[in-house]
Amino acid sequence: INAEYMGFYGMSSYETMEMSPSLACNSRCVFCWKHPGTPTTAQWQWQTDDPKLLAHLAVASHLSMINTMKDVQGVRPDRFRKAQAVKYCDFSLVGESLMYPNMAQLVQEMHANRICTLVYTSGMLPQPMQKLSSVTHLVLTVAAPSAQLMRSTGRPVFEDYWERFTASLDILAAKPYRTSLRVILIKSWNDTQLSEYEEIVSRSMPDFIEVKAVIYCGRTDALDLTNNVPSHQETLDFAGQLCTLPYMSKYYEVACEHEHSSCVLISHKKFKINGRWHTWLDSDRFIYLAQQGRAVIKTEEYVAPTPDWALVGSAGQGFDPEEVRHKRKRRNARQSTAGPPVLPPNGEDLDLEDCDEA
């Protein structure tokens, strides 16, 4: 799970299971870290497993991996015990989760097993997104704020990609449960179009905007560590500048930061209750409501207070003071003489590898 989610939403990584119901994706985002061998396609073309079976096998496989860490030096026994009960399922490992035809049913299976759900999507599949009647937290990734930049940054396989994305924005606005936009910030590429981002926010009306600096994964054909990766301060400055625009300043405010993930959380002001931020989710409350058979669960029904250490401007910049941070000194670091390539000028297309299209 994204490390910043502990501070932003109160989700501990040791109680979280990551799962990919679809290894395939319909985009080739320049910032994606997935294995290059995973398929890119416009439609599902594989055997469709039963969602109940998937939910069972996912938990069993997750616990099998967790149990290999028993008695390993450094593993805290209290957290190892807590990890035996999966509390959250993060559908974001690789691929586009909404490509799996029974995604809505899989989400319900997780809730039936007392597991909260986070579903990520690139916004290319609005119809399956519409079918998600009850999700703990729905996250829509914003690869770029305009059609031209989306083409060269998100690199979707669909010709009508922008229409699909904007339709997903409208669907997000109508969801009663927690929603986020996740802006992947690439320095000197998609970090200056503030008014376009404001238009996306005003159309989708999310509960949160997660501004995440792109992470250089060590091997990529598109990103340059020196020129394209923002610092945490640059990410924080971008979020602050975005919140000065008219619509943003009326409804949103920078709430949290997580410096060591270089991520900033902008929250809707409705989550500041009696002067205190409530960006954390009450997972037990959500599961209780879900298992009551509620057709609609509203965001405000499962909020919890955000601790001071997670707030923007805190002494640890979002690092939990109960944790111990280990920093390893790099020795004999190798430097490439050629260096990785740089993104092309804004708006120019990158060459796509061959992919299956419907």
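the 2nd protein, sequnce then structure:
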Amino acid sequence: PREYKHSISGPRIVQVNDNRVTPLCIHVIILLSTFLIAILQYIPKALLGGMFLFMGIASLNGNQFMDRVKLMVMDSAVLDDSDTALAEVPRRKIWFYTAIQLICLAVLWAVKQTVIAISFPIFI
């Protein structure tokens, strides 16, 4: 977290506390999982698939992209402009931006289905 000191010209950052413990713990767990492959192979793939599916669906709630996709298909009479960004940004601009994101997502998925998918991270 950042600490701010307020002055006449506005807030000024005084100190930034960096957290390096969490990434270290994550990498240690990844390293340990390489030694536990013999044990991890007994976990059914259906269990892992179901767990990742649940985590993915659970993370969609509150995702801004998914909220904007829902806005595209909702009736405008149902929307409450005070609860969304619609109060500040015109709806047409939000739809245009979301449409561009949907097109990019479709292109990424289409490339993933081809033989160049393995080299795709190089292009990014």
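The chain is about 55% helix and 10% strand. The radius of gyration is 22 Å.
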